[in-house]
Amino acid sequence: MSDRLTPNQQRVLDCIKQHIERDGSAPTLREISENLGLSSHSSAQDYVEALVRKGAIERLPHHRGLRLPLSHHRSRAPAAASIPLVGRVAAGSPILAAENVEAHHEVDPGLFHPRADYLLRVVGLSMRDAGILDGDLIAVHKSDTAVHGRIVVARLDDEVTVKTLEHRNGRVRLLPANPDFAPIDVDPRRHAFAIEGLYVGLIRSIPRTRQG
After folding, report:
1. CATH of the domain at 185
2. Which pLDDT value is given to residue 199?
3. Active-site residue among 33, 40, 163, 205?
4. Which of 158, 167, 177, 210 pairs with 28 at a CA distance of 20 to 30 A?
């Protein structure tokens, strides 16, 4: 970080960190304003811009487009900590089956909340507007349940996909974050459906790799 933060800038930074740790994504300007009692969204915007200029946070091209710098993660990760990277998942096989694990990356799983169990390589642009791009590595916490509105890794028949989970009127839908893609209506009479995990963070530039 190139410059010292003012007390109010530090409050905003702490708010952003806590939201990322809790929900896996950055807060909106409205959420920052409400959480800190700021007078307007423009005040929150001013603080965010200052934090970006000072290198305390980085901007991504979407409405929750803030993340902590990768150097922040590196400085806190023990050298021995690593997370398995899963590439394309073989049809019908468990996500962490040996044939699906491409490598191990030296990132502390405890940097994410909940703790990351594996990294998954994203294929396609269906979650583009959530800042998740083709080729990105997302951190995933293993879970077979998720609440409405959470970005999840889901298995639909033999395919694994990353989408936002929607529970509404007893129905389950998987929502993309790109208008070029259609929502997926999950019909338990036609599809084998399961939640595989929760999206808890993203890594676009990766540290050293240990093959295995």
Report:
1. 2.10.109.10
2. 95
3. 163
4. 167
